[in-house]
Amino acid sequence: MRDIAAEKDTVMAAAKRLRHDAIQDRYAGAGPPDVAFALASLLDLLALKWVDLDDDTRAATLAGAAPRDAAL
Known about the structure:
By secondary structure, the chain is mainly α. 69% of the residues lie in helices and 0% in strands.
C-alpha cells in the first residue's frame, strides 16, 4: 500500500531543496534563482492536491523528485 503522506512529504522536500540550492548557487555567483523557484512552486501546487492526483501523475512527480543525495 502506498503511503500518500510520505509521498507528499517527498515532493515538499524536493521543493524546499530546489529553493535552498538556488539560493546557495546565487551566493556562489550563479544567475538568478527564478527558474528553480518556479519549479519549486509547481511542486508545492502538486503537493497541495496530492491526494487528488492520479497514480501516473504521482509516480512521474516522484520519479523527478527523488533525492539525488542525502546532504542538506
